[in-house]
Amino acid sequence: MNELREREAAAVDVVVVGAGQAGLSGAYHLARAGIDHVVLDHAPRPGGAWQFRWPSLTYGKVHGMHALPGMELTDADPLRPSSEVIGEYFAAYEERFGIRVRRPVDVTAVREGSAGRLLVESGSGSWAPRALINATGTWDRPFWPRYPGQETFRGRQLHTANYPGPQEFAGARVVVVGGGTSAVQHLLEVSEVAAETTWVTRRPPVFRDRDFGESAGRAAVALVEDRVRRGLPPQSVVSVTGLALTDAVRAGLDSGVLDRRPVFDLITPTGVTWADGRHVDADVILWATGFRAAVDHLAPLHLREPGGGIRVEGTRAVRDERIHLVGYGPSASTIGANRAGGAAVREIRRLLTREPAEAGHA
After folding, report:
1. 41-62, pLDDT tens digit by residue?
2. What's this model's pTM, rounded to 2 decimal places?
3. Quick one: three-class SS letters along the chain?
């Protein structure tokens, strides 16, 4: 089967997997460098993961959206859903720069091809590139922790990935699990309509009551970068920056909505219980527990280290210099994704100018 796919694969210099912020940035720089490429995206329309965000996440609530290279996002209505604003912006960007994204295309595997090329497989065809920019982000891999008794809970369990907005929680007793920005946003919204909310986190949240300056930002990114350099699963940049102490967050702290409890020890049919006997009844458990990198399609290349992550120098996978991960680890922020797209293309350009026999595994 692989031999047949390889014979039918379209030869191309670079395949970009994913057309979110990181993928579009990579495509922009590839086009400017005159490098033959194709962009594949599994989503039904432009917008990357933003198109799947809940309607109540308006553009004014977005935690930092950096413009794509070459085109600013201007005059956006802060009251419109971010999914609409950013979806339209990405669509306009693709049109302006002639980025022809093939969608929906689900890449199922990337494996070793012949003559130093890779083989990118999907249900919509195969491609044989000399290099690959992986920009698949994390949205497709929501992380669900496991706790004793979880399967016995008679209420509803859902994740940030399928959070519908606050309206469905009217009159409910809701437990929100997680210490990140999404958890705080969910709590502030849901508390306005729910009968009761409870916030639990594994570690006490850290609130940042000052602007996050450039030096502090570099230090935070360096911490995340160190993990991926050592082959450990990446943490988000936000996990090391702390939570912004906005006016809304201050109000939530003052009202008690953001009164955090340590995470429970047991889930029962009717709620959650701590080892000391405390119990909270719940109708809903909302898991705002983050996401993991969506890189399972790269498994045939054996890029993972014993620590569980893919070791990366800059954007380049240490085990295979043909693979560049953008929007991974330290480049997971929108500004980081932009810079990573350009950095990846600069390295790929050098790779493509070498003799084919010289390129390949590091």
Report:
1. 999 999 999 999 998 999 988 8
2. 0.87
3. CHHHHHHHCEEEEEEEECCCHHHHHHHHHHHHCCCCEEEECCCCCCCHHHHHCCCCCEHHHCCCCCCECCECCCCCCCCCEHHHHHHHHHHHHHHHCCCCEECCCCEEEEEECCCCCEEEEECCEEEEEEEEEECCCCCCCECCCCCCCHHHCCCEEEEHHHCCCHHHHCCCEEEEECCCHHHHHHHHHHCCCCCEEEEEECCCCCEECCCCCHHHHHHHHHHHHHHHHCCCCCCCCHHHHCEECCHHHHHHHHHCCCCEEECCCEEECCEEECCCCCEEECCEEEECCCECCCCHHHHHHCCECCCCCECEECCEECCEEEEEECCCHHHCCHHHHHHHHHHHHHHHHHHHCCCCCCCCCC
